[in-house]
Automatic annotation (TrEMBL):
SUPFAM superfamilies: Anthrax protective antigen, Six-hairpin glycosidases. Pfam families: CHB_HEX_C_1. Residues 606-663 form the GH29D-like beta-sandwich domain. PROSITE patterns: PROKAR_LIPOPROTEIN. It comes from the Bacteria. InterPro entries: 6-hairpin_glycosidase_sf (IPR008928), 6hp_glycosidase-like_sf (IPR012341), GH29D-like_dom (IPR059177). This is Chitobiase/beta-hexosaminidase C-terminal domain-containing protein.
């Protein structure tokens, strides 16, 4: 028997590992060289670059998600531009922030700025300052800008820009490491850490000390020390070095925990009762040393931190993704954040973790496959109002049939970090750092389809009031007309109705297909008249297949989307109109005419004007009003007509050479007069939800102000007048307000209800005034209700007084408070 020495075995093992690493390295390089990643990187990079205006202003959001330019984004943009050699752009970005600060008389970096006030004046005019739209005191954002300035200075050496702006940068550095940020001696403060008055975080927890702030201030100090030494500014270098030494010791003392016998960074310290308590959760903030390129302690602490962070990695349909945040309880956020992905990519590249990088690439192919520009974040959703803020592994199972929804593609800060990580990774793999500019794709005329047959035929059904879920058997549709996509007509307002869409789907290849519905209520998909279980594979042959979608209990403006998946890889494509045909007969069929109004209701005592419209000007429309089937012998439509009672309107379109259309119909029913709502002040454009309908749509808002069910009013009162349309006995009036002071949303300090019969003279029935809110108040929904007896009125006025400027203890002290309003309920004698 022959024995192999342990040394040879070790050598074989090392060689085997090296081969695996080389193979995985090659896979990652192939991924980055693929059309998918070349396009994603190019589109994202040039979308950012092209948004930098001549004076350096960079609009944060291309979608309108955020207003203005966020100064902190400079801290991500400049490192990226240093990698790609766009030094002039880098200088302009920094100069824009400095100019905004100085021309507005500020001694610190503003949170958010907007363009120059007078666009026709010189950009550098002191008499033409930038508009400041966010004055929140965010010391970490200031450190981003200082660090960006220092990195540019160190990269280029001495320049006229450096000489001109050195005093500004140095003064900012001094202010950042003195009171009120550093060296605080107040009760409960930590003098050897940087205090952050308004740290923006995905966690809804109070915190004044976090790892990110410490790292970016530390990195700024280290870089500024290097610049100062080069410039011969020894006093500045010496005092900053003292501050840096204190900060390093403070981080080691307060920001290191022991996890399984290893030193790991804390993410943040919780602020509770003026005490700062270590928080044991893990999230994207733990990767801050990677972004700042400054590790306050020895490298093994960072390695241990990433290992602990990765214990939160989840698997969704075989895709491994890291949640934005996780909690010590094992819960995690059903979201991934753009810069968190970027920072982990940078860490993995430094550590040569090619397998993890390949996992991230595979994940991004799924997340980004329908969006050609990188994201701010993405979250898991299935259409239901499910809270993704704290999920468990068991709850994640409920989202296996869901989809990843992308938020704010092109967001300045998030995508700049990702492009930075991509540029550095590509450089490491000897791929071009500056991407080729890819010409946007245009529609291929050879694939253009007959638009006249595109779309779906939809029917609107009234439900039996006692039936839940909605019953489809033997129902008579209220209307039929073609649509290009599945959506709920805004005019539909009945709480209990359903929609059915019928079409033909074009299948490109024989394969297994899965269908997924993203909708707030029950939805069914039928293929060739058979119900298809969500997520279950069904084998379809190439060609056309009848497809039907049935949706229960719809309310206006709901998001309704259907995704399909070919094969096993969970790339889910939204079902687009070009794959759907309302007619695939050998002889083309006319489209049904449109009947307007779509809302199938006539208020008692009123009349409506009905118009019919053909989708082709050569079509003739014939209609009936008695429920009979229209033919070319029926009345021909020539002009709009009025109806004032319950009526079934049916219509068909007839064209030469085409088959007669399906019958369009609307069953107009008589209903009581509806309450009208008039607002004195319009809601903020970002929080309009469904407009005034939001207040009476029977969808109660949650504790999350962005759930689409609230109207938001910034800095104004809420005043509304309700018109009941006739004098009635009012039994009660109720209204909801959101209170979430961490989001600057405050319940009103005064609420008044008043009644009137003529809309001129009002009598108060409820007057409540409240003390100023305290720092300790939790997020809640506050309901105000008046129970009335024998009170007759036609008009109800609701007045809610805004809390006014933010209190002094709040991070946004002096800023405008918000009022968030949701549901108004009025009970009357005829209900």
């Amino acid at each position: 028997m022959r024995f192999v020495s342990s040394g040879i075995l070790l050598l074989l093992f090392v060689c085997s590992c090296q081969q695996r690493d080389d193979a995985m390295y090659q896979k990652v390089k192939e991924e980055l060289s693929s059309d998918f990643f070349e396009t994603l990187y190019s589109n994202t990079y040039y979308d950012l670059l092209d948004r930098i205006e001549a004076d350096g202003f960079l609009q944060e959001s291309r979608t309108g998600q955020y207003d203005g330019m966020y100064a902190r984004t400079v801290g991500a943009m400049v490192p990226l531009l240093l990698e790609t050699g766009e030094l002039t752009h880098a200088e302009h970005l920094i100069n824009c922030v400095f100019d905004a600060m100085t021309t507005n008389g500020m001694t610190r970096v503003p949170h958010v700025l907007d363009r120059k006030q007078y666009l026709d004046k010189p950009a550098d005019s002191v008499n033409n300052p930038y508009r400041i739209v966010g004055r929140t005191d965010q010391i970490d954002g200031q450190a981003h800008v200082i660090l960006a300035w220092a990195k540019l200075a160190l990269y280029r050496g001495e320049t006229s820009f450096e000489n001109r702006t050195w005093r500004i940068a140095a003064a900012l550095m001094d202010r950042s490491v003195t009171k009120p940020y550093f060296g605080l001696e107040e009760k409960g403060a930590i003098p050897d850490l940087i205090y952050n008055y308004a740290f923006e975080h995905s966690r809804l927890v109070p915190s004044s000390y976090n790892l990110l702030t410490q790292c970016f201030v530390g990195a700024a100090l280290e870089s500024m020390i290097a610049v100062a030494k080069r410039r011969g500014e020894s006093d500045a270098a010496s005092r900053w070095q003292q501050k840096l030494d204190i900060l390093r010791a403070g981080i080691e003392k307060h920001f290191v925990q022991n996890a399984d016998g290893k030193d790991v960074y804390y993410e943040l310290l919780l602020n509770e009762n003026n005490e700062h308590i270590p928080f044991h959760g893990m999230g994207w903030v733990n990767l801050s040393p990677v972004a700042a390129q400054w590790e306050p302690l020895r490298h093994d602490v960072m390695v241990n931190t990433v290992a602990a962070l990765r214990r939160s990695i989840q698997t969704w349909n075989g895709i491994k993704w890291m949640p934005t945040d996780s909690w010590p309880t094992g819960e995690f956020y059903g979201q991934m954040i753009g810069k968190g992905i970027a920072w982990e990519m940078e860490y993995a590249a430094r550590e040569k973790e090619w397998t993890r990088l390949h996992e991230i690439c595979s994940m991004l192919r799924i997340i980004q496959h329908q969006q050609p520009i990188y994201m701010e974040n993405a979250y898991l959703a299935n259409g239901m109002q499910q809270d993704i803020y704290t999920l468990t592994k068991a709850e994640l199972k409920n989202l296996e049939q869901g989809v990843w929804k992308i938020v704010d593609p092109g967001n300045g800060e998030q995508v700049a970090w990702w492009c930075w990580a991509m540029a550095r990774l590509r450089k490491q793999m000897r791929l071009p750092v500056v991407p080729k500019r890819i010409t946007p794709l245009t529609a291929d005329s050879s694939r253009a389809l007959n638009k006249s047959r595109h779309g779906l035929i939809y029917s609107y059904f009234r439900s039996d009031k006692n039936s839940k879920p909605f019953h489809w058997i033997n129902d008579v549709p209220t209307m039929v007309e073609p649509q290009s996509q599945m959506h709920v007509p805004e005019a539909l307002s009945d709480e209990t109705f359903g929609l059915a869409w019928k079409s033909y789907i074009a299948i490109d290849a024989d394969h297994d297909y899965r269908f997924f519905c993203y909708a707030a209520n029950s939805m069914r998909v039928l293929i060739d008249n058979d119900i298809v279980e969500q997520g279950r594979a069904i084998y379809l042959t190439k060609g056309y297949h009848a497809i039907t979608f049935q949706y229960d209990h719809v309310l206006p403006d709901e998001s309704i989307e259907v995704y399909f998946q070919q094969g096993d890889q969970p790339i889910r494509e939204i079902l687009q109109p070009e794959k759907l045909f309302y007619s695939v007969s050998t002889r083309e069929r006319s489209a049904p005419p449109l009947i307007d109004p779509a809302i199938p209701e006539i208020e008692t005592g009123e009349s409506i004007t009905v118009s019919l419209q053909a989708f082709d000007s050569t079509a003739r429309i014939y209609y009936t009003l008695d429920g009979s089937e229209p033919t070319d012998n029926s009345a021909r439509y020539t002009k709009p007509f009025k109806i004032g009672h319950a009526t079934v309107v049916k219509a068909v379109a007839i064209q030469e050479g085409l088959e007669r259309s399906e019958t369009a119909l609307v069953h107009y029913e008589s209903i009581p007069k509806k309450m009208l709502v008039t607002l004195q002040y319009l809601p903020h454009a970002n929080y309009t939800s469904r407009g005034q309908k939001t207040l009476t749509d029977k969808l109660t808002g949650s504790l999350h102000g962005r759930d689409g069910r609230w109207l938001g009013f910034e800095g104004t009162d809420f005043n509304a007048v309700l018109d009941l349309r006739s004098i009635k006995e009012v039994k009660s009036v109720k209204i909801n307000f959101l209170h979430d002071q961490s989001a600057w949303i405050f319940a009103p300090v005064k609420v008044y209800f008043s009644l009137s019969t003529d809309g001129k003279k009002y009598k108060p029935v409820l007057q409540e005034e409240f003390d100023a809110v305290t720092k300790a108040e939790k997020s809640t929904i506050k309901t105000y209700e008046a129970i009335l007896r024998e009170k007759s009125a036609r008009f109800i006025r609701i007045e809610a007084k805004n809390a006014g400027p933010m209190p002094t203890w709040h991070s946004g002290a002096g800023g405008k408070a918000w009022i968030f309003v949701d549901e108004i309920e009025v009970a009357t004698d005829d209900q």
